[in-house]
TrEMBL record, chain A:
The chain crosses the membrane at residues 6-22, 31-48, 54-79. This is DUF2304 domain-containing protein. InterPro entries: DUF2304. Keywords: Membrane, Transmembrane, Transmembrane helix. Pfam families: DUF2304 (PF10066). The keyword Transmembrane helix applies. The keyword Transmembrane applies.
UniProtKB/TrEMBL annotation, chain B:
This is Glycosyl transferase family 2. One of its GO terms (molecular function) is transferase activity. Belongs to the glycosyltransferase 2 family. The keyword Transferase applies.
Length: 121, 233
């Protein structure tokens, strides 16, 4: 029973944190949806830890807890991969911006020096 | 022959304040008709000022991207300013500007010309894992290109408009990607690649990496780069 209380509290806490981040616009919705889905599916499991035993039995996993653990690891791996992908994309985007800034600054310096030589004429 | 074409010499530089002035002066003395662009890759020294004083156009990246990043910006500049030919030259003085006209001349028969260090000229040599890596690379790329390519990691290159456009959009920022990957990319997109023998000079400053550990890492990384380049979509 104690364990159930603990897991329920953790699950609810997760939901509150995500909601709060969303409310403060610290988290883009596309990520929030994922975490809210995770939170919402974890809380019922915290109340009924045996809830997944039947499903686990169907696919040959000894207990629901093992199934949850397996799915959790899988989910985290996928999320890590997704974040790496996202970071790579962001780096490519900042690289493009850096190039544009460099070109704009070069052009600006060119125009400046042209203006100065015009002034001197 | 190629005198009516607009040529841009691209020199990527990261903290090369010591040598960049001399390199630019040499290039301008040897090739007065060519424009010189120095891409300052977020240097913390006076590279940009020295280069500007030496008469080059300078474009400064706001932070360090790595040599591939600097090169892509060079090609983007060449593309936007509609240059016909772009020549890559290193800022450390290894590449002799007297070879540039040979590279540009060879563009009449090829889309990408690589200045090769092991093709007879000069005394550049490599040993151990670095040599294995370079041999394997040149074997694979020579087979692919249908011509002898002995120095695929050379940064001394020249290319024309189609590849300028390609590299401006695509050139990878990864270590070694800017040399191996770009050559493989050109071959796989049906461009002709040729090499021209050049003599490499000693660097004016700085030390080349020669430790065995670094050589082994180099071997490993170049193999990964080659493998990825070969299977890329």
């Amino acid at each position: 029973m104690k364990l159930t209380v603990l897991t329920v509290i953790v699950g609810l806490l997760l939901l509150v944190v995500i909601f709060e981040l969303l409310r403060r616009r610290q988290l883009r919705e596309k990520y929030a949806v994922l975490w809210i889905a995770v939170g919402l599916s974890v809380v019922p499991l915290a109340v009924f830890p045996r809830g997944l035993d039947a499903v686990a039995g169907l696919i040959g996993v000894a207990s629901g807890a093992s199934l949850v653990l397996f799915l959790a690891v899988l989910l985290l791996l996928l999320i890590c991969t997704h974040l790496s992908w996202e970071v790579s994309r962001l780096e490519e985007e900042t690289r493009t911006l850096a190039e544009e800034i460099a070109l704009v600054r070069t052009r600006l310096a060119e125009l400046d020096s042209r203006e100065i030589s015009n002034d001197q004429r | 022959m190629t005198s009516d074409k607009r040529v841009l010499v691209i020199i990527p530089a990261y903290n090369e304040g010591e040598t960049i002035g001399k390199v630019i002066a040499e290039v301008r003395a040897e090739l007065p008709a060519y424009d010189v662009l120095v891409v300052d890759d977020g240097s913390t020294d006076d590279t940009a000022e020295v280069a500007r004083a030496a008469g080059a156009t300078v474009t400064v990246l706001p932070y360090n991207l790595g040599v591939g990043g600097a090169r892509r910006l060079g090609y983007l500049y060449a593309l936007r300013h509609q240059y016909d030919i772009a020549v890559q030259v290193d800022a450390d003085g290894q590449h002799d500007p007297r070879n540039v006209s040979a590279l540009v001349a060879a563009l009449d028969e090829a889309d990408l010309v690589i200045g090769a260090r092991f093709a007879g000229e000069g005394s550049y040599s490599a040993r151990g894992p670095r040599w294995w890596a370079m041999s394997l690379l040149s074997f694979v790329l020579s087979k692919m290109a249908g011509t002898k390519l002995t120095d695929t990691t050379s940064g001394f290159r020249a290319c024309g408009r189609p590849l300028i456009a390609g590299y401006a959009r695509w050139l990878p920022v990864e270590y070694l990607g800017d040399t191996i990957d770009t050559a493989v990319w050109a071959i796989r997109h049906g461009y002709t690649v040729r090499q021209v023998p050049v003599a490499m000079r000693a660097r004016m400053a700085g030390t080349p990496s020669a430790s065995p550990v670094k050589a082994a890492v180099y071997l490993f990384r170049s193999m990964i780069t080659l493998l990825l380049a070969l299977v890329r979509k």
